[in-house]
Design goal:
Structural class: alpha/beta
Protein name: LacI family transcriptional regulator
Distance between the termini: 64 Å
Number of domains: 3
CATH topology of the largest domain: Rossmann fold
CATH superfamily of the largest domain: Response regulator
InterPro entries: HTH_LacI, LacI/GalR-like_sensor, Lambda_DNA-bd_dom_sf, Peripla_BP_I
GO molecular function: DNA-binding transcription factor activity; transcription cis-regulatory region binding
Number of helices: 14
Number of strands: 12
Domain HTH lacI-type: 1-55
Pfam family, one: Peripla_BP_3
Length: 354
């Protein structure tokens, strides 16, 4: 702790307060301390992080009672059981737990103070975090030593096992496919700050483009590289994409293909283009990612990447059970392979000749 204090130019008392989670320092200071602690390897050292509670101190479960896993889905605005994406991951978690006779307790909570009430119930084996979770919440889980696995999210400061789809590779292959059928002006649509998955998908897109350096496509990377849009439902994406497309059409600079960070964005993009009289895929090809049910029900059916959502949930459970059995084993990042699905929303570029 003295090393962290010296590194930040604060007192050891401030560092202790920040790492204890008991308050007394601002949220900004706590984040700085956590960041410095991670950079200095504090969390990775055996026994270096003094826990305020050990799992052995938790109440014992009477024989015959059902043990459960805590599933944390804190972003209740869209990460719900009804979600076409997150709900399917939850289905996989529930199915796999049921196989071994375990229960599941779902918690939607952003407040660290409130969340602490859920960390000590009888029979909690560990935690599976689904989607974006704040660092302070994960710090509390790490502090008491509760085994945890994160699905579709990782925190660069708090060590944990994680389960993802191979987002980078899938978007790379999808981008290369569009390049291969003649598209020279491609745009990634999505906010890379939204999630680690979105960032990895953009990196796959960008990597495929960078291989085209020296070509017409390579020279247009900066101009057509990314359109950041925010929201959760396709209706929220439609209007900003529509306004962006209007400006591009006036400038005669509309890309020939839009590679969207997920299906919801892609659906919004298709609707926006159709309202402007832009044919999909005749004028502009559009791709999504995730393969939610709406992606193949729409017209045209959406070219996308199938994310094995239920399998993500099942593998998270298996990883958690393995972590409980081998607490000292190295952390693992598991990547499940996605599958490219070529449907009617993409076609050869107009100028393409074999």
């Amino acid at each position: 702790m003295q090393q962290i204090a010296d590194y930040l130019g604060v007192s050891k008392f401030v560092v202790s307060k920040a790492l204890s989670g008991k308050g007394g320092v601002s949220e900004a200071t706590q984040e700085r301390v956590i960041q410095a602690a991670s950079q200095l390897g504090y969390f990775s050292q055996k026994n270096a992080y003094v826990k305020t509670m050990k799992l052995e101190q938790l109440p014992k479960v009477p024989a015959g009672n059902k043990q459960s896993v805590l599933v944390l889905m804190p972003n209740i605005r869209f990460q719900t059981k009804e979600s076409l994406y997150w709900g399917r991951i939850l289905d996989g978690i529930a199915a796999r737990l049921e196989e071994d006779g375990y229960g599941m307790v779902i918690v939607s909570e952003q407040s660290v103070d409130h969340f602490m009430h859920f960390l000590n119930p009888n029979g909690i084996l560990g935690l599976i975090g689904v989607g974006e979770i704040s660092t302070p919440l994960l710090l509390e889980v790490h502090r008491i030593g509760l085994p945890m696995v994160l699905v579709d999210h990782e925190d660069m400061l708090i060590p944990s096992d994680t389960v993802f789809t191979n987002n980078y590779e899938c978007m790379y292959r999808l981008t290369k496919h569009l390049i291969g059928i003649g598209h020279t002006q491609l745009c990634f649509v999505g906010d890379t700050a939204y999630s680690r998955s979105f960032k990895d998908r953009f990196l796959g897109f960008r990597s495929a483009l960078e291989e085209q350096e020296g070509t017409e496509l390579g020279s247009g990377i900066k101009e057509n590289g990314m359109l950041a849009v925010e929201g959760f439902e396709h209706e929220q994406f439609k209007e900003p994409i529509k306004q962006w497309a209007i400006k591009r059409m006036k400038a005669k600079a509309l890309p020939t293909a839009l590679l969207c960070a997920n299906d919801m964005i892609a659906i919004g993009a298709v609707h926006a283009l159709q309202e402007l009289g832009v044919a999909v895929p005749g004028d502009v090809s559009v791709t999504g990612f995730d393969n939610i049910e709406d992606s193949y029900r729409m017209s045209p059916a959406l070219t996308t990447v199938h994310v094995p959502k239920e399998a993500l949930g099942k593998r998270a459970v298996e990883r958690l059970l393995s972590r409980i059995a081998g607490k000292q084993e190295p952390m693992e990042k598991l990547l499940l392979a996605g599958e490219l699905l070529y449907r009617e929303s993409t076609a050869q570029a107009k100028s393409f000749t074999k």
